[in-house]
Write a structure and sequence with these properties.
It comes from Cyprinus carpio carpio. The protein is of the alpha+beta class. It is built from 22 helices and 13 strands. β4 and β5 form a beta hairpin.
């Protein structure tokens, strides 16, 4: 095959310049389209080239053949490279084109012979600066502007991180990004990169394959002056979620905190969903902070104490932004973690002190005598410390009832309360506990050691429960009257079973504290109609009462409804007593009748 030498050399020069190849480039002309593996295998038969790798190929209509650019491992020596090579398949030979030594030398001596634009720009800048003001300051300023411009251009064209490959194929192939992650990186490149519009479009198209590339090509063919943002919008419509802003907002309102999920992790999950809602115009952007706080209060089912400490219900009118809220929640979580570690360390110290005291009492009979007669002041100090800090559910030391995971032991709790009461009454004198009696074994004289028997609970210490039969929205039930409670409480399990049609209203700024010293959680409040028996209030009467809905206790045999003083029952009883006997006991009991009627 005969080809114009000047045409092929010009093609090779341009190709070498574009691929940054000089002494390791060779071009071969093949008559048909072959696989890259076949081309490389044929070219590697020329030993002086070494290992050969195909860098590109293109078909020329005027030459009726394919031009293939190959990169060689060895430096090209024009005296050793043959003009043709016979392919492995045995067809007609392929013509080889290389740059001569004069072309390479000329390129090295004058590397800027084709870069006339840079020289012209520099001359124009210097000439304008010198023509206006030929002072040294003007020349230095012009040189600085030129260096800044050239430095910025080089950083924009080469110093960027390529986007990962995305094709839109489902399931996502190995080595490709998922659509959501790829779209985040693409928007970051478009908004933050300082490159030109053409460079940004090229970066997007370089990372696309398959169906995604076809979508972008359709957009490019439809509009001549298309922007990178339109590329991303088209990909979002083609591969993104088809849900509307209202659908996404509805799904956002249904998000709940998962079991074992930290409140900060739940907040970050809310923020990702809220960002999609705002992007689809499900809500205005200025309401973003308020909606975030509202859903956090609604969906955080296992973090009532954290939300109470943060006072988010009172701050809904001026809610914090995402970063401030995340910082406050993480600080509260860190505080609770440090408190839990401190409690564990404190309980370990108490246990070690008890073990040391028991060991000492077992090894020394005199110590046992002092403990029985009440002369060991150090053991009294340890006992007073443990009695101030024990569980009201199981009676064990080192934790409190809200943190208890053991089974209920009322007898042990009552015994510890009795010992604590006796100690306060007798002035730091206390009888030995059951643990000390069972674990202490030694030989002593009968005249010194006195046996202490277990005393039964005195009669009259525990009274009967004050329960009353009533109707709650027509449902008969036995409720507990608690004059020490200011609120009426209905447990959640009973509410779900009998009052599920009654709506629950939210409550803010209310903390309910129990005997254990911890805040009692609640879901909200309901308004119910309670009808007492005629013998209880002197006549059939229905009262409208507000009641809190709270999670049920872990202990069994608990009344599902607790009537507090807000039900006006005690006020009604005082009024009946005054009407029947003429005695006003409302003032004596501290009941304010005018507050309820």
């Amino acid at each position: 095959m005969d080809f114009p030498k000047e045409v092929t050399l010009e093609e090779l020069r341009g190709w070498c310049k574009g691929e940054s190849l000089r002494d390791h480039a060779v071009m071969v002309l093949i008559p048909e389209d072959l696989e890259i593996m076949q081309i490389e295998e044929t070219m590697q038969t020329i030993k002086c080239l070494g290992r050969v790798r195909v860098r590109g190929r293109i078909f020329r209509e005027n030459l009726k053949c394919f031009l293939v650019l190959c990169e060689t491992k060895e430096k090209i020596d024009p005296n050793l490279v043959p003009p043709e090579v016979l392919p492995v398949s045995g067809t007609e030979p392929w013509k080889i084109v290389i740059l001569s030594g004069e072309d390479c030398a000329e390129k090295v001596q004058n590397p800027f012979q084709n870069d006339k634009t840079i020289i012209e720009d520099s001359q124009a800048m210097f000439s304008s600066a010198v023509s206006t003001n030929s002072s040294p300051d003007a020349i230095i300023r012009a040189v600085g502007d030129l260096l800044e411009k050239t430095g910025r251009t080089s950083s924009e064209t080469g110093g960027y991180r390529r986007l990962r490959v995305f094709s839109g194929t489902i399931p996502t192939p190995s080595g490709e990004e998922q659509f959501e992650h790829w779209m985040e990186q693409a928007w970051l490149m478009v908004e933050e990169s300082e490159g030109t519009v053409r460079v940004k479009k090229r970066r997007i198209m370089e990372s696309l394959r398959g169906p995604a590339l076809e979508i972008v090509k359709v957009v490019r063919d439809a509009e001549t002056d298309v922007t990178p943002e339109k590329y991303l919008d088209a990909l979002e419509r083609a591969f993104g979620s088809a849900e509307s802003g209202d659908d996404l907002y509805f799904a956002f309102r249904l998000l709940q905190q998962l079991a074992g999920e930290k409140l900060s992790d739940f907040l970050r999950r809310l923020e990702r969903a809220l960002t999609k809602v705002v992007q689809r115009e499900g809500i205005p952007a200025d309401l973003r902070d308020r909606v975030r706080v509202e859903q956090l209060l609604r969906g955080a089912v296992g973090a009532d104490m954290k939300l109470l400490h943060l006072r988010l219900r009172e701050r809904k009118t001026k809610p914090p932004n995402f970063l401030m809220l995340l910082s406050e929640i993480r600080a509260e979580e860190e505080y609770e973690t440090s408190r839990a570690k401190l409690k564990t360390r404190f309980a370990t110290m108490i246990t070690k002190s008890q073990i040391a005291v028991d060991c000492k009492s077992t090894s020394s009979p005199n110590s046992l005598q002092r403990k029985v007669t009440g002369k060991d002041s150090r053991e009294d100090g340890v006992s007073s410390l443990t009695l101030k800090y024990f569980c009201y559910n199981c009676g064990e030391d080192g934790h409190i009832a809200p943190r208890c995971q053991n089974s209920e032991n009322k007898d042990k709790v009552i015994q510890k309360l009795i010992r604590s009461n006796r100690k306060m009454k007798w002035g730091q004198k206390e009888m030995p506990s059951e643990t000390e009696k069972s674990n202490t074994s030694c030989s002593a004289k009968k005249s010194v050691v006195s046996s202490v028997g277990e005393k039964p609970i005195p009669e009259g210490l525990i009274g009967p429960p004050t329960t009353v039969q009533l109707l709650i929205n027509g449902q008969p039930w036995s409720a507990l009257l608690d004059s020490g409670s200011q609120v009426t409480i209905i447990f959640e399990k009973w509410y779900r079973k009998y009052l599920s049609e009654v709506p629950v209203h939210p409550v803010s700024g209310l903390a309910v504290w129990g005997l254990s010293g911890s805040s009692y959680p609640y879901i909200g409040h309901v308004e119910v109609d309670i009808e007492f028996q005629e013998k209880a209030i002197g006549g059939a009467e229905s009262l409208s009462v507000l009641a809190l809905i709270s999670p049920g206790p872990t202990s069994p045999d608990q009344t599902a409804v607790i009537i507090g003083t807000n039900a006006s029952l005690f006020t009604r009883l005082a009024q009946i007593c005054k009407e029947s006997t003429g005695t006003d006991i409302a003032h004596t009991l501290g009941i304010q009748v005018e507050h309820y009627f």
